[in-house]
Specification:
- The protein contains 2 helices and 3 strands.
- The chain is an alpha+beta fold.
- The longest helix is centred in the middle third of the chain and has 12 residues.
- The model has no long low-confidence stretch (mean pLDDT 79).
């Protein structure tokens, strides 16, 4: 039996997010602008599969496919 799990997680911008620099700081605002312009921002799906007998595990990060 194979156990499969999919989790949606948010991406953290390079250099840290608003938790590190504060919400109103220049670096946080720059990261927000980059999220809207580039593919770095947004979310990614983590697909994990675990074999029930051997406990062999595999995880793969896949981007969201847009229309």
């Amino acid at each position: 039996m194979v156990h499969v799990d999919v989790k949606k997680v948010g991406r953290i911008p390079d250099g840290g997010g608003s938790r590190v620099h504060g919400r109103g700081s220049g670096r946080a605002k720059n990261a927000d602008r980059l999220k809207k312009k580039s593919k770095r921002g947004g979310y990614v799906y983590l697909h994990s599969a675990v074999d029930g007998f051997s406990r062999l595990a595999s995880t793969e990060a896949l981007p969201i496919k847009g229309p």
